[in-house]
Write a structure and sequence with these properties.
Keywords: Acyltransferase, Lipoyl, Transferase. Pfam families: 2-oxoacid_dh, Biotin_lipoyl, E3_binding. With 430 residues, the protein is α+β, with helices and mostly antiparallel strands. It contains eleven helices and 18 strands. Strands 9, 12, 13, 14, 15, 16, 17 and 18 form an eight-stranded mixed β-sheet that branches. A four-stranded antiparallel β-sheet has the order 1-8-6-3, with no helix packed on it. It has a four-stranded antiparallel β-sheet with strand order 5-4-2-7, with no helix packed on it. A hairpin with a 6-residue loop joins β10 and β11.
Length: 430
């Protein structure tokens, strides 16, 4: 019997998505819960898994084409309507019902988040299990969020299927060395490949979102840029000294956590820099949380996840979170909420070799900084002697409707003082 696999809702208001890659081909035998495709929305990359076991008889889209939500994605030939398929049908119905409730994320994610909150302290058995675990997409996502190795959890469902309840108290894996820094990804071979003649291609996915947001920001916000030089000689020495200890905890310590913590100490003195303006510029909202965005150049385009509540995190916790978000950004697996709610942004353009820039404000934020590369340059010391110093240029862009140059200069000098005298900053860290 041949069955059409219907592409389910993958987010509120999303009616189509780009088929980024097939993990299957026609004639291939697959099993239930096997990954079959990656699709890209304007928010994130989403993995699609099969709800059936059988042989793929038809793919309705080619790689790069736009797939329609609620339309057949592929056709699969199954032996019969087994109980397992009935269960899958039930899950699809549940997914559709959840999407109709106007959720922000796709239905599976919502189920996972709901279960996650409800089962933080419940017990869960942990048994050895070989091979690929059987679980729904929602359970797989919950396992990833909890750092649980799914194949090690005994499934209590039919045919050993792992349920949400099975995950409830499974011990998390030790934080792995998710220690990729915010170093930007070098150009791929495809990007560097030479092209002969002109060619056109549609702007879609993440790049389409970037085009829309950047255009809107420039049109609505009068930008001004303020540039300053930071002497980070002492800060870099401190980073090198702490590097091994952070590595022992699975964190790669870059300069970015220091820049973020210095911001978290500075912004309470300049709340205007951590605020939002309404569309008519008639009202300011001062934000209590400090969620710092980190611009990341990925194979998918520019992504700006943000670290939530930087003021509450230790330097180690902040490093681990930066590493995790950078990895997720490169893999296109950021959750929608990880790119929402930012209050101010740092862009590490220096990772590509630049020194100064004129960054565009990440609306609805009111300020953004571009960090240049660190250079060893000659500078005069207090005795008038020339010595080698570690120098970084920083370029701040501000919303000139509410921020004037003097405020930006005072703010930057306050922040700079922490970075140039890191012991002063460390005495105030929590």
């Amino acid at each position: 019997m041949k069955i059409d696999f219907i592409l389910p809702d993958i987010g509120e208001g999303i009616i189509e998505c780009e088929l980024v890659d097939w993990h299957i081909q026609e004639g291939m035998q697959i099993v239930e819960d096997q990954s079959v495709a990656d699709v890209m929305t304007d928010k994130a990359l989403v993995e699609i898994t099969s709800m059936y076991t059988g042989r793929i008889s038809k793919l309705y889209y080619a790689k790069g084409e736009i797939a329609k939500v609620h339309q057949p994605l592929f056709e699969i030939e199954v032996a019969s309507a087994t109980p397992s398929q009935e269960q899958a049908t039930d899950e699809l119905a549940a997914t559709d019902a959840a999407s109709q409730s106007q959720t922000q994320n796709w239905a599976g994610e919502q189920q996972a988040e709901s279960v996650n909150r409800a089962s933080d302290s419940a017990p869960c058995p942990l048994l050895a299990q070989s091979g690929k675990a059987i679980a729904s997409p929602a359970v797989r996502r919950l396992a990833r969020e909890c750092n649980i190795e799914l194949s090690q959890v005994a499934g209590s469902g039919k045919n050993g299927r792992v349920t949400k309840e099975d995950l409830s108290a499974a011990p998390s894996q030790t934080q792995t060395a998710a220690s990729h820094s915010l170093n930007l990804v070098p150009p791929s071979d495809k990007t560097a490949a030479s092209m002969s003649g002109d060619r056109s291609e549609p702007i879609k996915g993440i790049r389409a979102v970037m085009a829309k947001q950047m255009t809107q920001a420039v049109q609505q916000i009068p930008h001004f840029t303020y540039m300053e030089e930071l002497d980070v000689t002492l800060l870099d020495a401190l980073r090198i000294e702490l590097k091994a200890e952070f590595a022992a905890h699975g964190a790669k310590l870059s300069m970015l956590p220091f820049f973020m913590k210095a911001l978290a100490l500075t912004l309470p003195h300049f709340p205007l820099l951590n605020s939002r303006v309404n569309e008519t510029c008639s009202e300011l909202t001062y934000l209590s949380e400090i969620n710092i965005g980190m611009a990341a150049d990925t194979p998918l385009g520019l992504l700006v996840p943000n670290v939530k509540g930087v003021q509450h995190l230790s330097l180690l916790e902040l490093s681990l979170e930066i590493n995790r978000l950078a990895t997720a950004a490169r893999e296109g697996k950021l959750a929608p909420n990880e790119m929402k709610g930012g209050t101010i942004t740092l862009s590490n353009i220096g990772a590509l070799g630049g020194t100064v820039a004129t960054p565009i404000i990440n609306q609805p934020e009111v300020a953004i900084a571009a960090l240049g590369r660190m250079q060893t340059l000659p500078r005069f010391n207090a005795d008038g002697l020339v010595e080698a110093r570690k120098i970084i240029q920083v370029s701040w862009s501000g919303d000139h409707r509410i921020i004037d140059g003097a405020t930006m200069a005072r703010f930057c000098n306050h922040w700079k003082a922490y970075l140039e005298n890191p012991l002063t900053m460390l005495t105030q860290l929590r």
